[in-house]
Amino acid sequence: MNEIREIVTKAIVEKGKKTIRFVERIRTTNPVESVLGCWVLNHNFEADKNRNGVEVSGNFEVNIWYSYDNNTRTDIAKQIVSYQQDVKTKRKVSEYSEDNNDVIVKMIQPPVCSDVKIIDNTIEIEVLLEVAAEVIGETKIRVSVLDPIPNFDADDNESDADDEIDEQINEQFLKEKMF
After folding, report:
1. In this prediction, what percent of the chain has a pLDDT beyond 90?
2. By CB neighbour count within 10 A (0-12 exposed, 13-18 middle, 19+ buried), where does 169 fall?
3. Cα(61)–Cα(111) distance, rounded to whole angstroms?
4. What is the rounded distance in angstroms from the CA atom of residue 106 to the CA atom of residue 12?
5. Bridging pattern class, strands 97-119 and 53-68
6. What are the two backbone dihedrals, phi and then psi, of residue 33, each rounded to the nearest 5 degrees?
7. pLDDT class of 64 with cuts at 50, 70, 90
8. Could you tell me which of 166, 176, 157, 141 has the C-alpha nearest to residue 8?
9. CA 27, CA 12: separation in Å to the nearest integer?
């Protein structure tokens, strides 16, 4: 006879993914002739559950290597950029406890500089990053419980099998074959 039981467990109850693009303008101390390189470093982020899904906030440092003075000299412009974005999530479980949820956010694509332009002695960069968010909450699952399995004493069965094997061994096998 099978029974149906409910088990309370933690499971992924919401999921979402978002590509985040934003543009930053960085002022330099010297008039920019050309951009030689752009790097995004020291990225830190955290996430919290909100009404619409998950709010991801973080910051990173942008380093831009540029030339000036008729491309004869170079310098590096640095700026810390902060961001805050909402990642909409879809419910995967219809009923779950909305108290005490855990949020897991993974960077699918860490922030990178995807485009650089020089506009009126400022450097305009486009930064691209991609995140995946999961909300873990308590939910109920239903399981079918089968009839109980009979409990056998494993030691008794093993010792009986060992005794049978010992009785079947011919200890004179090698001596008989050699002579």
Report:
1. 54
2. exposed
3. 10
4. 14
5. unpaired
6. -95, -50
7. very high
8. 141
9. 44
Residue predicted with more confidence, 93 or 50: 50
Cα 23 from Cα 83, distance rounded (Å): 11
Average pLDDT over residues 111-136: 93
C-alpha–C-alpha distance, residues 148 and 69, integer Å: 84
State the Cα–Cα distance between residues 64 and 32, nearest whole angstrom: 11
DSSP symbol at 1: -
Write the DSSP assignment of 100-119 as a string of letters. Answer: EEEEEEEEEEEEEEEEEEEE
Count other Cβ atoms within 10 Å, centred on residue 120: 8
Question: Which position has the token pair 């290597």?
Answer: 65
